[in-house]
Amino acid sequence: MSSPRILLVRFSSLGDVLLMTPLIRALRGRHPAATLTAVTKEIWAPLLSANPHLDEVVTITAADSVVGLARGLRGASYSHRLDLHSSARSRMLRLLVPGHWDSFRTRRRERRTLIRQKRDTYGIHVPVAERYFEAAAELDVRPDGGPAELFISPAAEARADAWLAAHQLDETAPLVALAPGAAHATKRWPLAHWRALAAHLGQAGVCTVVLGDTREREAAACVVAASAGSSASAAGDLDLQASGALLRRCRVLVSGDTGPMHLATAVATPVVALFGPTVELFGFFPYQARATVIERSLTCRPCSSKGGPHCPLGHQRCLTEILPDEVMARTLEWCR
Q1: Would residue 148 count as lying in a domain?
Q2: How far apart are CA 131 and CA 192, in angstroms?
Q3: Same structural domain for residues 84 and 173?
Q4: What predicted TM-score, i.e. pTM, was given to this entire model?
Q5: Is the distance from CB of 259 to CB of 13 less than 8 angstroms?
Q6: Contact partners, residue 200, CB within 8 Å, separation at least 6
Q7: How many CB atoms lie within 10 A of CB 322?
Q8: For each successive 10 residues of the chain (336 residues), what is the average pLDDT?
């Protein structure tokens, strides 16, 4: 019997792509001679580019069409095609690349019921990383109990070291990363809380680096300005690989339910994760990682699956009631 040729499709986003890696690792372990090809958006390709378990990473840009992508995939004769996205775009790809495809249960109905009726119909809780294994049922793989993983290139390690050297942070102090940003406003812990946390950490002799993309530079600068100690903003300065390398040098990351949380767990850095509108049943809690999750038990939670522009009730108590003193205490536990 010939070795399988396996196609895995997950276009986005940061956390979702990283959560594919336990399945990729399991496939390589179970089928060492297999050919493994992953398809993702170009922006997320660095999350997979150095992964030794993959043979190829195929990318698609915003300007590319699914038709063009399908044209390039049709001649590869894959024995197994795994749709790990189950979106309109991935379903179109399935129509354009003939053959048998497998996918997984997205639990959209259960998620909707929990949001709208506050009724749990999930049954057994299955994290997203393990739901992906449902698509690979024919390939006889099981989760190995390990976390997501990001393999970092030597060049990215060097970029992180150069950034640290340029900012002359206190090398004798514990290094803590803060990620105040989030794509959706209701997932953002209040900026005033971030500033208070940065001040408290500085007073405790902790050195902080603030992560984010270019859109979050202003917020990151505000957090750095509030610090009473050695602190610097890396927002918009580092690519995904170098950000992962920087996170690996930190004692802990404090973040919301966002991509940087998964980036940290993928490089074995502990996280203090602040969850507001979303909940564990959705499947995106830190996966098989050293983590402290802080959340509030409110009857209005969850209110959305991915966050939104504003709190439906106008108060955002799920995050405003998580106070800096509590986050400070839980963060310092990882610095000892």
Answers
A1: no
A2: 37
A3: no
A4: 0.96
A5: yes
A6: 324, 325, 328
A7: 19
A8: 91 98 98 98 98 98 94 94 96 96 97 98 97 98 98 98 96 96 96 98 97 96 94 98 98 98 98 98 98 98 96 97 98 96
Q: Would the CA dihedral through 164, 168, 174, 175 be positive or negative?
A: negative
Residue 50 DSSP class: T
CA–CA gap between residue 119 and residue 109 (Å, rounded)? 11
Give the phi and the psi of residue 35 in degrees, each rounded to 5.
-100, 120
Q: What is the dihedral of CA 196, 171, 239, 11, to 10 degrees?
A: -70
Amino acid found at 159: R
Token pair belonging to 9: 């499709």
Q: Which amino acid is at 304?
A: S
Chain position carrying tokens 């990363």: 177
Spatial contact of 70 and 96, defined as CB atoms under 8 Å apart: yes
Q: Assess if residue 234 is contained within a domain.
A: yes
Could you tell me the CATH number of the domain that includes residue 112? 3.40.50.2000
Asked if residue 238 is part of any domain, the answer here is: yes
- Domain housing 326: 154-333
User: How many separate domains does the chain show?
Assistant: 2
Cβ distance 229 to 198 under 8 Å?
no
